[in-house]
Amino acid sequence: MSTRSLPSAVPDRVAAIWDAEGLGILEGAVTGFASAADLLDGSAWANARREEIADRVVDVIAVRAWHALPQLSHGRARRVARRCIAYSLAADTVRADGSGTARSDCWTLTTHALELLTIREHFDAAAHRSRELLGVAPRGRLLAAWQMVDDALGALGATRHEWVGADPATVAAAGWVLVDRMSRLLIGAALVAQSVAASAGDAELLVNAARRYAWNHLRRPAPEAATPTHVQRSADLVHAFLTPGSIP
Fold first, then answer.
1. How much is the pTM?
2. Nearest CA among 246, 192, 243, 242 for reference residue 218
3. pLDDT at 38
4. Are 110 and 89 in contact (CB under 8 A)?
């Protein structure tokens, strides 16, 4: 179902909550997830768990970098960026604590963001803002993070035509991949920019976070849009699963 057929107040209200409170919600979820880290020893199990905790901590550090930017600095991308960032906050909360409410909100936030991302001006504004924040290639270890963001921005152009002008109800089937990618580009570029401007005391931590964030979220194929055929095949799979004897 397209959000165009939903009462507009529903997605607007969900987006407003995550826009206003999402960072605090995510910080609380990650704090709870990380609270046992000090109890971990040096075993293989403990190291594996600590690694996942570190990934969630990096998600918080990265989105803080975005929130540190003045809202007015985003210009024409401000509206679409808010919708995309709201999605990533909910998605990262799910990763941290498995919240069922946040998972449900992700579907609403995806369709809400797609209302704008399927419009050329908004798609291009978000991509341009990411490029603007990324700036010129830095030196040192931060270059790796910069390169991953830059490569992901370049790949975005390969499938832009699949999204711009598309029916939001159809592309919503795989819409999260675009909303997620746009949000990660904006956040990743903001973290790179913050790392460049950081003091010597903060730089190493931020550079490490920027490299890990880009590695975790941006080393993926260009986001491809779903087609009506794909939507129908998904419906067929679900119907077959729910029909006894239909699946071997």
1. 0.93
2. 192
3. 67
4. no
